Structures are given as C-alpha cells and as structure tokens.
C-alpha cells in the first residue's frame, strides 16, 4: 500500500538526486552540441579520408548501445590506458559523445537547408571560410533546428538511468539504494517515474513554445 509518510521521508533524497541527473544531462548536452558540430564539419570536408572516417565513426557510435560505450569508458579504458575516469565524467562523456553523432545529423540538415545563394554571396563578398560559417551559414542553419535539439535534450535526460550501471549516483541509482535499505519498491520507483514525467513534460512544453516563436519570427 502507498505510504505518504514514507514518501515524505524519501522525497528530499530523490529531489537531490534529480538535481544531479539534470546537471549530468546539461553537461552531456553541451558536450554533444560542440562535438556534434565538429562532426558535422568533418563529415562535410572535401578531403575524402576525413569525411569517410568521420561518417564511419558516426555510424559505429550510433549503432553501438550506449550502455556498452559507457561500460567501455568506465571499466575497459582504464585497463588499456591506465587512465581512470570518475563515474560522473565517464557518464557525461559517454552520453555526450553518443548523442553528438545524432546532433551532427541535425546540424547537417540545418546546414543543407541554407539556400545555395548564401554560399555564393559569401564567395562574391570574398569571405573566408571561417567568416562564411560564422556570419552567414550558422546564423541561418541553427535557429530552425533548435526545437529538434531541445527534443534530444529531453531524450538524453530520459537516458540517464543507464549511468546507474557505472555507479553514477543519479535518480535511478538513488531509488535502488533506498529500496535496498527499506525493501519498499513501490513508492521510490513510482516517484522516479513521476519526476521524470514532470521534467520531461515541462521541457517539452518549453520546446514547443520556442518552436512557435521561431515559426512566428520566420513568418514575419
């Protein structure tokens, strides 16, 4: 049976773990944004070896389970390199690198949607490649894909329970620890589901609002 006294007792601990979960998600998302853009640039390189290698890496990462990648970073990499990565950083790197391959495709779609005339205008103005990307292409390519990037942020948030497998003390692992101490699973896991639902739903509403504003701006 549902015990409200027990809920009140464990809720602060779960809220604290939720803050860690959100922090991990944000750090991993920033990493994914940066690496994803670099991958998009590399995949478009006119130097074929770089382009092919980048596309191969993207396909490999996307077709390998996130859990396997996180396990490799935390458990296998130290055995190979003698470089031990703390669980938090291994989780952030694993989650960020995994989703950077997806964001690279989002960036690619945004870049390809820019009218070819913009590239020609940059050439006519004698812009360097850096100037072309910074002042013409990216300012037009990024805004339309912001809602998609926001959706991936929500997806990454919902993927964080995977990191409990490498002892990252996020929301799910905290709930497991509570259950192991109290032997009451109903309330902790239900609360975890509710917290994930609330954060994901509120985030999706914010993404929808951003998308509406962008559509209005493009319509003017």
From TrEMBL:
The similarity comment for this entry is: Belongs to the binding-protein-dependent transport system permease family.
**Protein's name according to its UniProt entry:** Ectoine/hydroxyectoine ABC transporter permease subunit EhuD
Query: What are the record keywords, sorted?
Result: Amino-acid transport, Cell membrane, Membrane, Transmembrane, Transmembrane helix, Transport
Q: Which domain of life is it from?
A: Bacteria
Localization, UniProt: Cell membrane
Residues annotated as domain ABC transmembrane type-1: 18-207
Q: What is its main location?
A: membrane
Annotated TM spans: 20-43, 64-89, 189-207
- One matching Pfam family is BPD_transp_1
**Which InterPro entries does the entry link to?**
AA_ABC_transptr_permease_3TM, ArtM/GltK/GlnP/TcyL/YhdX-like, Ectoine_EhuD, MetI-like, MetI-like_sf
The membrane topology term of the UniProt record is: Multi-pass membrane protein
Q: What PROSITE patterns does its record include?
A: ABC_TM1
């Amino acid at each position: 049976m549902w015990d409200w006294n027990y809920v009140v007792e464990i809720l602060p601990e779960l809220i604290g773990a939720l803050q860690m979960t959100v922090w991990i998600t944000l750090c991993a998302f920033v990493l994914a944004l940066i690496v994803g853009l670099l991958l998009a640039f590399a995949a478009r390189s006119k130097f074929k070896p770089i382009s092919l290698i980048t596309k191969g890496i993207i396909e490999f990462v996307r077709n390998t389970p996130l859990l396997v990648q996180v396990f490799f970073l935390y458990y296998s990499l130290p055995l190979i390199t003698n470089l031990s990565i703390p669980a938090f950083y291994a989780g952030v790197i694993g989650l960020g690198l995994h989703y950077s391959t997806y964001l690279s495709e989002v960036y690619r779609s945004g870049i390809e949607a820019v009218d070819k005339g913009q590239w020609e205008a940059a050439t006519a103005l004698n812009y360097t490649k850096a100037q072309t990307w910074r002042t013409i292409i990216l300012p037009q390519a990024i805004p339309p894909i912001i809602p998609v990037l926001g959706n991936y942020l929500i997806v990454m948030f919902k993927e964080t329970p995977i990191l409990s497998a490498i002892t990252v003390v996020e929301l799910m692992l905290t709930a497991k620890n509570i259950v192991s101490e109290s032997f009451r699973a109903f309330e902790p896991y239900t609360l975890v589901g509710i917290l994930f639902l609330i954060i994901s739903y509120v985030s999706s509403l914010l993404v929808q609002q951003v998308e509406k504003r962008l559509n209005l701006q493009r319509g003017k």
